[in-house]
Amino acid sequence: MKYILLIIISLFLISCDKGIEPKEDTEPRGFSGTITFIGEWPAGIKRTHIVLFKNPLNSSADFNIFNIKYVSLEIPNGSQSYNYNTTETAVLPESGYLDAGEYSYLAVGQSETENLSLNRVDWFVAGLYFSEGDSTNPGKITISSGVITEDVNIVCDFDNPPPQPPGGN
């Protein structure tokens, strides 16, 4: 009986690996798509990024570090298209693995500032994600665990930019 108890305890310890610590979540979760640029790029642009916000941008106060959930690497100036996947193109790699849930505002933002700025006035929305069939309101994106949502595409038409959120120029 003593040997059976010892075997059970040994198997328990071996299978626990790190005790009761939660398993690291390595499941893919995020989204991917293509950004298409139409027209001449504006002069003076220093940086272009894809930015995802958890909550809508109803006021300039909503443009804050707590609401920003994903920022892409810089998109090269003059690009005609840019393919992205949040798990591969995030400025901070861990931010590319988004929490499951609903996100309210996905945009391509451009700035004329040399340094990365979190001031809303420094950014102009060049393209906005719209739900299919509705080009009047920003589209919502639902992220599920273990899934990369595909075809989250944005068109940046420099001759016909989308409505700007509050707090910009």
In percent terms, what proportion of residues is strand? 25-35%
Helix content: under 10%
Order of helices and strands: HEEEEEEEEEE
Global shape = globular
Work out the helix count. 1
Estimated radius of gyration: 21 Å
Number of folding domains?
1
Low-confidence stretches: 1-19
What is the distance, rounded to the nearest whole angstrom, between the alpha carbons of the first and last residues? Answer: 78 Å
Structural class: mainly beta
In round numbers, the mean pLDDT is 85
Instruction: Report the strand count.
Output: 10
- Largest sheet, described in full? 4 strands, mixed
Structure overview:
- This protein has one helix and ten strands.
- It has 169 residues and is mainly beta.
- The chain has one domain (25-157).
- Strands 1, 4, 9 and 10 form a four-stranded mixed sheet that branches.
- The longest helix is centred in the first third of the chain and has 15 residues, at 2-16.
- The termini are far apart.
- 26% of the residues are buried.
- Mean pLDDT is 85; it is low at 1-19.
